[in-house]
């Protein structure tokens, strides 16, 4: 039951953030589905492998690939789908814990949480990097095949 509640909340948070940043109405549902897919990959990897870093990389990679497909399908820029889909993957809770620990004087725990935030941010960047690399590789291969035919 908690998984269903999480799924609804992830979708609603993405749609809400999309409305907040004025996404076009025709992109909201697809952005929500891209976000939900990325979060589900994150959740499955995190639960089964207990690796938040690898889960973040794969979740963001999924968001990146699906955003590319969504942008081609809707004929809209990729960033329209990337930005709201990242909402569930951003380490906001850990960043809050860093600030709270610094304010209360617990610097050891603050350092630990800060390292976690940095790794998660790096994982998000890495996931997008891999997705874009795969997209560029596909485009070059497609161009090469078309040139070979002519």
From TrEMBL:
Organism: Apilactobacillus bombintestini
Location in or out of the cell: Cell membrane
GO BP, sorted A to Z: succinate transport
Official protein name in the record: Threonine/serine exporter
Residue ranges of every copy of the Threonine/Serine exporter ThrE domain listed in the record: 7-133
Cross-referenced InterPro entries: ThrE_2, ThrE_Dicarb/AminoAcid_Exp
GO cellular component entries: plasma membrane
Keywords: Cell inner membrane, Cell membrane, Membrane, Transmembrane, Transmembrane helix
Transmembrane segment boundaries: 27-45, 51-69, 76-94, 114-134
Membrane-topology annotation of the record: Multi-pass membrane protein
Keyword Cell inner membrane: yes
Pfam families attached to this UniProt entry: ThrE_2
UniProt family annotation: Belongs to the ThrE exporter (TC 2.A.79) family.
